[in-house]
Design brief:
- By secondary structure, the chain is an alpha/beta fold.
- It folds into 3 domains: 65 residues, Orthogonal Bundle (Arc Repressor Mutant, subunit A); 126 residues, Periplasmic binding protein-like II (D-Maltodextrin-Binding Protein, domain 2), CATH 3.40.190; 94 residues, 3-Layer(aba) Sandwich (D-Maltodextrin-Binding Protein, domain 2), CATH 3.40.190.
- The protein has 10 helices and 12 strands.
- Strands 3, 4, 5, 6, 7, 10, 11 and 12 form an 8-stranded mixed β-sheet that branches.
- Helix 8 links the parallel strand 8 and strand 9.
- The protein starts with a helix and ends in a 15-residue tail after the last helix.
- The C terminus is likely disordered.
Length: 307
């Protein structure tokens, strides 16, 4: 029989990529962690990790066991919440992990009628997709709002989760108000070749570069789209910003359609291996309604701009 505690140890080893990292989290010695892993390997009859000078890597069997450990941890967390609901007499608690622009855009109108209920406790955590997915897998979140680029099909790394598509978030060009290109209704990415860019980090930045087909000249980098917009307003450069992140438009910038237009695909992730609560399903329905009727931005201020 597989020992659940040892599964948890292997899960931490996978998370940290080393026995020492798992030991620190679990308040054990690396030797004790190694012994737990060895005992798990004996019980399943095969190796679960491969050691190297750069750390440890899961074998195929180890990956399967970690996926099972994620499901077990999520089920236990969900059971604790449901027990608490029974004891407290609440309809439920709902924990949402979301990236910033979704939390400023279509999530608030979906949450508003639910938050008004006295028997519902709502918790929200702001983070980028990678940590939100981990919160979902661990059971700390009931639903994770995520995004990805390139194709409508979600990444394979989410294959163990249930994906609900919500909105295709088209990217817009953001220009200083008096930029010569504001005379056009639509801008080609090729028109921005010689411009200085206010650019994002990581996957977002890479997706914009891939769509443009060239490496832009970067004057400034940022992870917050409103910060990027303020830098454009200051005249430092131009930017590409997804439509959902344009909830507030400054008077000092102009927004234009861009071709070819990169698309940020936004969706909700749910645990596939455990039950979802009625509150979670209600939130998904409300999110689908909010995005279907175009309610993707919570606030819009400043001058009306041409799209």
């Amino acid at each position: 029989m597989i020992d659940v505690h040892r599964l948890g140890v292997l899960r931490e080893v996978s998370k940290h990529g080393s026995l020492a990292g798992a030991a620190r989290t679990l308040h054990l010695t690396p030797s004790a962690v190694s012994q737990h892993v060895a005992a798990l390997e004996r019980s399943v009859g095969t190796t679960v990790i491969e050691r190297s000078t750069r750390g440890v890597r899961l074998t195929a069997a180890g990956q399967l066991l970690v996926e099972t450990a994620d499901t077990v941890a999520g089920e236990l967390s969900e059971t604790e919440r449901r027990l608490s609901q029974l004891i407290d007499g609440h309809a439920g608690r709902l924990a949402i992990a979301t990236f910033s622009s979704a939390g400023q855009g279509f999530l608030p109108p979906a949450l508003l009628p639910m938050a008004a209920r006295q028997d519902v406790d709502i918790r929200a955590i702001e983070a980028e997709p990678a940590p939100t997915v981990e919160l979902l897998r661990s059971g700390e979140a009931d639903v994770a709002l995520v995004y990805h680029f390139r194709t409508k099909t979600p990444p394979r790394k989410w294959r163990d989760l249930r994906y609900v598509p919500l909105v295709e978030d088209h990217v817009r060009a953001v220009l200083p108000a008096h930029h010569p290109l504001t005379e056009r209704d639509e801008i080609r990415l090729a028109d921005l070749t010689d411009e200085w860019w206010v650019h994002g980090w990581g996957e977002c930045g890479e997706a914009m570069e891939q769509a443009a087909g060239y490496e832009p000249k970067v004057a400034c980098r940022g992870s917050d789209y409103f910060f990027i917009q303020t830098m454009v307003a200051a005249g430092i450069g131009v930017a590409l910003i997804p439509d959902v992140a344009l909830g507030i438009v400054l008077d000092q910038v102009e927004i234009r359609a861009v071709r070819p237009a990169p698309v940020r695909y936004i969706g909700a992730l749910l645990p596939a291996g455990r039950r979802t609560s009625p509150l979670t399903e209600e939130l998904i329905e409300r999110l689908q309604g909010a995005t279907a009727d175009g309610t993707t931005r919570a606030v819009r201020t400043g001058r009306t701009t041409r799209r």
